[in-house]
Amino acid sequence: MLSRRLFTQLNAGRAARLEEERKYLRPLPSARLDCFKKLNAVRVSSGSTVRVVHNIYSVDSRLIGEEVAVHMYAEHIEVWFAQRCLERIPRLRGEGKHRIQYRHVIDWLVRKPAAFENYRYRADLFPSSRFRRAYDELKGHLALTKAAAVYLAVLKLAAHESEEFVDRGLQLLFDRHQPISLEAVMSALTEVRGAPSPAQGVLIAPVDVSVYNGLLEN
Asked: C-alpha 77: how far from its chain's center?
């Protein structure tokens, strides 16, 4: 009761100004307002990307040449096509940045291996250091276009099968000093699928129990 009387006293001096403001207030909207900004007719480029507020995002290569709608939220964007949300991507901050997902573009890239070496977003197509090392080794003993073709086939295997297993398969080949090839990776992939995941080593330092003696003495 005390708090209610206090609020009434504090608001009493504002009542006249509130009534003055009410003259200009409009009715609330009948439906909830959208919490995103909508961009219509965003064209998917030949490189399977869309430009949204000066930043580049990759989308599924099946959308190349199509127009999509983009819903821009505070923390992410959504890509819509034919009344369906196909992608939900973390939003980039600033300008001139890019977010390329290799699974989006791999089916397009395997048809153009000669362009891979100079591909603008090539650095985004190495999911781990093992993939990068595999490409470097391929370039060491194959012609550039052939090396790119083999690497892209390995990357496609990761996209459609399992990135984790392909990564472990590559490490297995490195440990055995075997040359990298699509056939070798596929064989290693079959092998690691049947093996348990390697346990991560955990080092626990020995406990110095003598410190408890000091507590007893105190």
From this structure: 12
Region of poorest pLDDT, from 16-30, 47-61, 190-204: 190-204
Question: pTM to 2 decimals?
Answer: 0.71
CA distances (Å), 69 to each of 13, 20, 75, 85, 214, in order?
50, 43, 17, 9, 69
Strands of 37-43's sheet, edge to edge? 37-43, 67-72, 76-81, 84-90
Please state the domain extents for the chain: 7-99, 105-193
Continuous H helices in the chain: 2-12, 15-22, 102-109, 129-141, 144-160, 163-175, 182-193, 210-217
- Alpha-helical regions (H) of 69-209: 102-109, 129-141, 144-160, 163-175, 182-193
